[in-house]
Design a protein that fits this description.
The complex is a heterodimer of chains A (about 160) and B (about 80). Chain A has about 160 residues and is an alpha+beta fold. Chain A has helices spanning about 10-20, 55-70, 100-120, 140-145, and strands at about 1-5, 25-35, 45-50, 75-80, 85, 90-100, 120-125, 130-135. Chain A has four helices and eight strands. In chain A, the strands form two sheets. A four-stranded mixed beta sheet of chain A has the order 1-4-6-2, with helices on both faces. A four-stranded antiparallel beta sheet of chain A has the order 5-3-7-8, with no helix packed on it. In chain A, a hairpin with a 2-residue loop joins strand 7 and strand 8 (about 130-135). Classes of the chains: A alpha+beta (about 160), B alpha+beta (about 80).
Amino acid sequence: MIRVQREDFDVGAEMRSLTAGNTGIGGVASFVGLVRDMTGGEGPSAMTLEHYPGMTEKQLGEVEAEARARWELSAVTIIHRYGRLEPGEQIVLVLTASPHRQAALESCAFLIDWLKTRAPFWKLEETPEGSRWVEARASDDEAAARWDPDPDKIPS
Amino acid sequence: MKLLYFAWLRQKIGAETEQVSLPADVTDVAGLIGWLKGRGDNYAEALKNEKVIKVAVNQAYARPDTPLKDSDEVALFPPVTGG
């Protein structure tokens, strides 16, 4: 299940809805991304997330399909927010449910690494000196690359 | 062809989207970027560092040699920073 939305999400409710009615699930792994305060409490540090409606959902769907091809997964939830967010707010949720813990944990890490380098979102940070676009980090590309060959890879 | 620009590319070019008719000799992504650079200082400035420009054709990541046709939706944007 993929959702791209302005509104916040409830991790507990999403987890219950992911597993409801499926007693074959042995475990759920989760990743919740939060807006980090980049100024150490000095001045504003909210951010605005812009995205490419249509392509965002398509790319997230492809990343989910890749995870399902690599691991035995019972259910997947990916929620990514856009719009203006304050420090401490939730940005992204990845939930993976599987009969086995290793598949749930590994696929959850894979999904967040891959979506960071593929899903078309851009962060505009508010700083005391004005707003600035967050730059992509090489470490994110390296984190995505450790999951191995992707013949279709283009982003980095 | 429908063009879309995002993040600082949108700001530097000064438009979110526009409709263009490609010259006959522009047939792929690399050709499109070269042609756009000649359309004004705002385009030249926004596209000067081609290495950081990502291109999507019909919402799928494209390469410099990806072919283009007039009915395509083509988006240009900087490296993504979600998650």
